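2024-03-11 09:14:02 DEBUG pipeline.ingest accepted 1 chain
2024-03-11 09:14:02 DEBUG pipeline.ingest length=492
2024-03-11 09:14:03 DEBUG pipeline.predict start
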Amino acid sequence: GVAAVLVVSKLVKYLAFTSLDRVLVWLFILVSGSSQLFFGYVETYTMTYLAFLLFAWLSFAYLDAKMHLVFPSIAFGLLIVCHFGMACMGIAMLFLFYQAFTRHQFIGMAISVVVLIGTVVPLLWIGGYTLESFKAIFLDESGSHFVPLITRTSGWHGYTLFSPWHFIDLANLYGLVSPFSLLVLLLLAPTIVRKLSAKDPQWIFAAILGCAGLAFTFFMNFDIGMSRDWDLASLYALGCVHAAAFVWIRGVETESLRRRMLVMIVIVTGLHSAAYVAVNATETGSVARYEYLPDDRLWGNGALAYAYEDLWTYYRDRHDNERGSFFAEKCLAADSMNSRRWVNGAQVFVNAGYAARGIHAYEKAIQLGTQEAWVYVTVGSEYIKAARLDEATALFHKALQLDSSVSMAAFNLGTLLGAYRNQNDEALPYLLHAVKTDSMYGPAWKNTAACLFDMGRHKEMIPYFERFLELAPDDSSAASVRRLLQFYQRSR
């Protein structure tokens, strides 16, 4: 954040000519909503913010013949490594190369290309990127990277490209970042067109920054919702912020009007950003805002499910199981095909006292093929209580297939076969397996002993009952076990 303040102080020298105008532009950029990233923020986008400022500063300096092309090339390499979407600013970098070409700076161009590659490749290598990770980023989920033109084809799409909800989402974003930037560019459009027609390099570059950022936010599909992913989107909106600052200072010739209006813009934008920071500075305000955000007109089901899962986890961790179960229901309604979410939702329901809903959620997870062995054990145990013994048997077998070390699956299966069905020969191997996998679980020793007793193998039964008494001397059945042992010990 400190570095960003310093870089903006360098950048404004190329956007404005007088000291007062430079101060106002400096404030205009720093009070934008993107600066919220420096107020207790935990993501890595702050580095991208700084890299964008560096690129803008060094590029304007190059266009003003105050900097070698190598330096904006380095900044651009850092920028696209910080976030690959910044490749959309590549057209700005190409424009700089074109300017170098028209200035006959061919050696400088060649050196800058080498430096650019030499910046990107080592940084990607240090970051641990591989060909597989690039494939995962750019190919495996390519269908959800852009807003669909006509029809939503993915659960990650909230709207289509020309839907009114898309434009509302964009208005919310630019209202958050800089409420006046797009308005300034729209009002001064005739001036912009005239300057572009004159082929002024600095005007063209400013326009490219604004258009590239606007195009990215317009076409990019923010999987978790633009209003939730404002942090990333705000970085691209910076292009419009810089373009608006440039156009306002260069395009409004009446000095008093220019400055009075810019003071008003800075004050309103600063209050707007400060209010947003204040809301998120308190846990209560931040959570209330987060609960308000999900909207199926703006977010796809995938984004809704993620947000509701965040909220149910938040309330679960604070032992507010009633609120947790409320958001768990909403999450599962948005995404009913995720076995992990059904498992986690079941736990929230059970903790809130909704046992039946919990079991139903576990059953849904099983139908969806969950690989959590303990879920099969949990549902199987409930089926035993409901006398659904065939279904319980199948679930315990499945649990052991998934994880043979789950002692409760072996214990329950052995107990079901022995105590409920008198199939002691089949029950014994499972009970012995339960004892082996969890030697500190007393009931497993007791039921193994009982199974041996029913099979008439009384001598083998004795050490199992003895071990049970060592582990659970105060168990309700301990007294009867002691009497049984005393009888057989006297008989021996």
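2024-03-11 09:14:41 DEBUG pipeline.report The first helix runs from residue 2 to 11.
2024-03-11 09:14:41 DEBUG pipeline.predict end
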